[in-house]
Design brief:
mainly beta, two-stranded antiparallel ribbon, 28-stranded mixed β-sheet, 452 residues, Pectate Lyase C-like
Amino acid sequence: MLFGTALLTIGCTKEEEETPSGPTGGTWSLNTVQNGNVVTVKDSTNQNFTFTNDRTWLLWGFVKVQNGATLTIEPGTIIKGDKATKATLVIERGAKIIAEGTAAQPIVFTSNEPPGQRNYGDWGGLIICGKAPNNAGANVLLEGGTGATFGGSLSDDNSGILRYVRIEFPGIAYQVNNEINGLTLGAVGSGTTMDHIQVSYSGDDSYEWFGGSVNASHLVAFRGWDDDFDTDNGYAGRVQFGVALRDPAIADPSGSNGVESDNDASGSSSAPVTSPIFSNISLYGPLTVDPNTGNMNTLFKRGAHLRRNTRLSLYNSVIAGWPTDLLLDGGPTGDNVDADLLQVRNTHLAAWGTIALDTVSGAGFDPIAWFGTTGWGNAINSDLSSLGLPTPFSLAVPSFRPNGGSALLSGADFSSTNLVNPFFTPVSYKGAFGGEDWTSGWCNWDPQNTVY
């Protein structure tokens, strides 16, 4: 069963070599090289190590933190990725990253290119692998060419802390159909802490989860290339307060979505089934920035594409300004809808212009009627202004807080059993923002011209 609608469719002199010591006396396996205030880091370590904020750290090639080692990154530290070597930081299974920034001193991973010359995919990105369950196996090779593996049976596995972290200009196609995302999470467990993260100008997905159970909050996906939030292979964590904002000119040849979710590549019933719970998410598509459809890249597709037997559920959210806001795709996904294993509640969809119904193969299933089921609190709006949001959004200085009187400022509901969990913070508003702009002070909307 495939069902849907256009709105709801189911060179310098030789440097001095030094080997900095880690917090417990450990060392990087191979020499680091310091040139002035820049320390180049290569290869791997099985010892504890610290990136201090009094230097700039340059990643060269695949830099791996191995089983048993912890990489600590001080608040305010700048880490750059080398373009030619497709630099990527890999936290392997059994290793940890403690990257605990603050709103005043966020930790920044960014391009090593000069201001004004940075671009999508200037370096690989950040990869974290864990030992939590997934449906691909216990020893799965992660895509991206790093050789990292993920998987296990420890749902509460702890890979460390990411807090107040920015990741800028990452995301590469290492090989055809073998990409590295801005932030890649392979079977990361719920013992890991993730909040206040911004991924900007990613050359692939901004965030992708391959299985695992890690929870995350206050996530920003800004001007990404492919999908903003991608969940696969049995990911079963919880996500609250996330916003995506797109550049209307930039999209991926495969088709760009806000959320994309599969159980696996074939849509099998392999367990655990992909079943994340998202609440207070704002997915703002290209037409929220430029309402002129003639200026939009035609490769933009859906605000949320739920397919291949996913059981992702979405609550208290808003999807606006996409060619198609919500697509529920395929027979197994339809079965999950029928069984109420895939839920959408207290969520607004806002098209741009005419709302058209295009049921491809509904077999009696009416997606508009399903979405509008009495008591579910869902609504369809004609545009952003009817939602009481600033329109159009600015890519230079986006303002996400709803205007006074907006329907988004009330009506959230946390009574669903899926939301009765200490992780979730019950709020009255729908979408990622109420009266407070939690991106203020630590997010950067112009990393292209920032001098690091």
